[in-house]
Amino acid sequence: MTGEMDDIPRDQLSGALRRGAVKKHVAAIHVSGKLTLLQRKLSNVLLLNAYDTLTSRASHQIDARTLCLMIGYNSNDIDTLKQSLRGLVETVAEWDMLDEKGRQEWGVSSLLSYAKLKGGVCEYAYSPALAEKLHDPKVFALINLNMQRRFTSGHALALYENCYRFVRTGSTGWWELELFRRLMGVDGSAYYEVFKQLNAKIIKPAVAEVNKTSNIILSPETKKQGRAVTHIRFLIRENPQLAILDIDDGEGARHGEVYARLRALGASDRLARQWLGAHGEDQVRARLDYVEGRKNVVSKVGYLSAALEGGYGPEPAATEPANPQAERLRRILEVIKARTPTQRDADKRLFLSQLTEGGARLDFERHGWMSPLNAARIRAFWEEMSPGLFADLPEGGAGG
Question: What are the tens digits of pLDDT across the range 181-215?
């Protein structure tokens, strides 16, 4: 769970990206549901990135590599990014709503008016009419980016987005099945005209994933005319098991004396909380006492990391440990420290995408770059990212 919340370092990102949530217009705007999971995530990140200047700027920019990794795929796969952007330009957003004078307004627009990739930067724009609607604060729902990354099905994410906006009222209200099919992106399919098939292939799996993955629990109800199902609604309640995903994790750790000492030493907020969570206050305090007493240490944060992960101290030593594993870890942490917050976020995503075993992923989500289970892979990853980083070190040890 900690790993999920660590995904976007909100305190270090600028502008709208810091919020980690997208203002999504509610019932007024219907976006064609025929978006892949990747496109849906991409759309949310682009909207969040642009939100603060949605109506004041004609176009918006975001680093393409950062964009790729924020939505969870290989930054070198630019063809997939192009395909996803093409899909957003070809997707229609339609609105039918009352204006401030009570007059009915209908409109239609491409979701993006254009997108282009140049020099590693993605530039994109919304049509002025759609930008005005998306920025309207009167009716919106917050879509949490940390939450959306948990979904593996586009239908489940679409259902979550369309239900979460009604969490305070406890129900979506009755939707005609035709509208529901549109929201799920299966309108126009004869197969899903049959409710039994719609229920088995779309509704039940999507509800199961939302209830397992997100901070809300859905209960579908249907209404019939004769024998035919004509309407559906979803009752919504908060999921007490996963409600913690909505708040910043480790908040309590920030008030302790050991946390304050870690921050004074130069450890980031996230790193300090990660160490306290993984090792406990007593062990971190003992290693801190040891490291703070060392002379001629260039990076006390890097040295503390080596002490915690390698079990050094509290015995004094004349020099820094010659253990190659500890030195590799120290160098890795130095490289990470020099990178921007968005680059660090992207590095973690790229590495996580290469882990297939559940145990390895869980260990990395818990321990980050100090993950014992992934030490050899972490070493190989950073050797590739920073060629020559360990060139003068002996080969011995597990790496990391």
Answer: 988 888 888 899 999 999 999 999 999 999 988 88
Domain definitions of the chain by residue range: 1-139, 150-249, 252-385
How many C-beta atoms lie closer than 10 Å to residue 201's C-beta? 14
pLDDT in tens, 59-107: 998 888 777 766 766 666 788 888 889 999 998 887 766 666 667 778 8
pTM above 0.85, yes or no: no
Distances in Å between the Cα of 286 and the Cα atoms of 85, 254, 307, 364 are: 51, 18, 10, 24
CA–CA separation, 113 vs 124, rounded Å? 8
Q: Return the biggest CA–CA distance within the chain.
A: 86
Contact between 239 and 217 (Cβ < 8 Å): yes
Cis-peptide, bond into residue 314, ω within 30° of zero: yes
Pairing verdict, β 175-176 and 228-238: antiparallel
What is the spatial distance between Cα 125 and Cα 135, in angstroms, rounded to a whole number? 14
146, 8 Cβ separation under 8 angstroms = yes
The domain made up of 1-139 is a member of CATH 1.10.10: yes
Q: How far apart are CA 253 and CA 274, in angstroms?
A: 10
